[in-house]
Design a protein that fits this description.
Shape: globular
Largest sheet: 2 strands, antiparallel
Length: 426
């Protein structure tokens, strides 16, 4: 579960798509079209490091390495004096290598700090939840609720026979009545079971993080305790930060960090059950990290998504608002394909699953029900949709051949020769 990378502030209307603090956007923004002025300049001169359209690729630029003076001197000396000069040059190179090593240690510390920061921040991706924190569709949702945590064996480099056998083992687990067909009710039960697995995993992770930010072990984490740990993960001195906070002195942080802190504090307030004291218990801290575990925090998450997508300020979403593309235009067919896929997927989700009463408008209540991972009615709708994707004989059930043929949809891994192997695997 990754930490947010870019800042997202509260936008001023009518700007439709603000830069977001949470989470880092998972969808690639299309490249902008070259301006008329740049077109008027005509084609660029030949340049091995510049691709079509004038984009510069530094890794393609020719690198000219100047000949070191020491090496030139080594070539000019007589053969009899070559050994001493080369030994001297080797010693210089070794000294340079030793002097460069602290930089490697520094980068290791930065990597460790980045890991600490990710563990402290609420994740931008929630397993088993239909929407991302920024309102994008969770592209891995079907695999998450079909496989649960048991994803081993379905990697790209996994042995196909082993993957097919494991997929058929999963099929038999979903097929409770052993009639070699999966019904919508059986798939619904399985989705709820896998979602509960993700919930339990989040609880266990939250406990570890809670104890990491509760140094005195009193069962409560104050906002100040969390703030200190967060700033330390950003490279600040723990002693210095704690001392300044005790003395009420201003903390000097960059603008992006300050925006992240403000967003986190808003979220902290929401997770703090009344009466508000800015002290979170272990359960409240779980809601802070994973809003899907709390109805109140789920409401907060829905409000954030609606705020970001709602363009006319009516606090509900129309179809055009929900399918609006990210800022930017496209200049090639590949970019256009991405845009077409974005619109097609979101339109289908809006009309078939989110807009419960099919009136063309999604209210906060409808979006909240849709995003609630433990909503049994939604789980049944998801089960029916998943079956419909692969149900080639239109009997409202999934059969082994269909699951193997559409393995990429269920597992993210495409398994070949499904028809020839299905009976062998059973």
């Amino acid at each position: 579960m990754a930490a947010p990378a870019s800042s997202r502030g509260r936008r001023a209307r009518p700007e439709p798509f603000p830069v977001r603090l949470f989470p880092e956007e998972r969808w690639p923004r299309p490249r902008s079209v070259p301006s008329e002025a740049s077109r008027a300049l005509g084609p660029r001169s030949a340049d091995p490091g510049r691709a079509e359209g004038g984009r510069s690729w530094p890794h393609l630029q020719p690198v000219l390495h100047p000949r070191p003076r020491a090496a030139m001197a080594c070539r000019q000396v007589p053969l009899s004096g070559l050994a001493p000069h080369c030994l001297w040059l080797l010693g210089v190179i070794l000294l340079m290598d030793v002097s460069a090593r602290p930089a490697n240690h520094s980068s290791a510390r930065e990597r460790a700090g980045s890991k600490d920061e990710r563990e402290l921040l609420p994740p931008d991706h929630l397993n088993g939840v239909k929407l991302e924190m920024d309102g994008h569709l969770n592209k891995d949702f079907h695999q998450e609720v079909f496989l649960g945590k048991d994803t081993d064996g379905f990697e790209e480099d996994a042995e196909p026979r082993r993957s097919r056998r494991k997929l058929m083992v999963l099929f038999s687990k979903v097929d409770v009545n052993t009639d070699r067909r999966i019904s919508a009710k059986e798939m619904q039960r399985w989705i709820m079971e896998k979602t509960a697995e993700h919930f339990q995993e989040a609880v266990e992770e939250s406990k570890v993080h809670f104890h990491a930010v509760d140094p005195d072990g009193d069962g409560h984490v104050s906002w100040d305790e969390y703030k200190v740990k967060f700033l330390v993960s950003k490279g600040h001195s723990e002693q210095e930060v704690a001392e300044k906070m005790r003395n009420g002195e201003e903390l000097k942080v960059d603008e992006e960090t300050q925006e992240v802190l403000e967003n986190l504090k808003d979220r902290w307030y929401q997770a703090d059950s009344p009466p508000s004291d800015l002290l979170l218990t272990e359960d409240e801290f779980l809601s802070f990290l994973h809003p899907e575990h709390s109805r109140g925090m789920l409401k907060f998450m829905v409000k954030e998504i609606v705020r970001d997508l709602d363009q006319d300020g009516d606090k509900q979403l129309s179809l055009p608002e929900f399918i609006s593309l990210p800022v930017g235009t496209v200049e090639n067919q590949q970019g256009q394909d991405i845009d077409d896929s974005w619109v097609r997927d979101r339109k289908k989700e809006f009309e078939e699953l989110i807009d419960a009463n099919h009136d063309g408008i999604v209210t906060m209540a409808e979006l909240e029900d849709y995003m609630d991972p433990m909503n049994e009615y939604n789980a049944l709708n998801e089960a029916k949709q998943m079956i419909a994707i692969a149900d080639e004989n239109q009997n409202q059930h999934l059969e082994p051949e269909e699951v193997l043929k559409y393995s990429e949809f269920f597992t993210g891994s495409k398994l070949m020769d499904y028809a020839r192997n299905v009976h062998e695997e059973f």
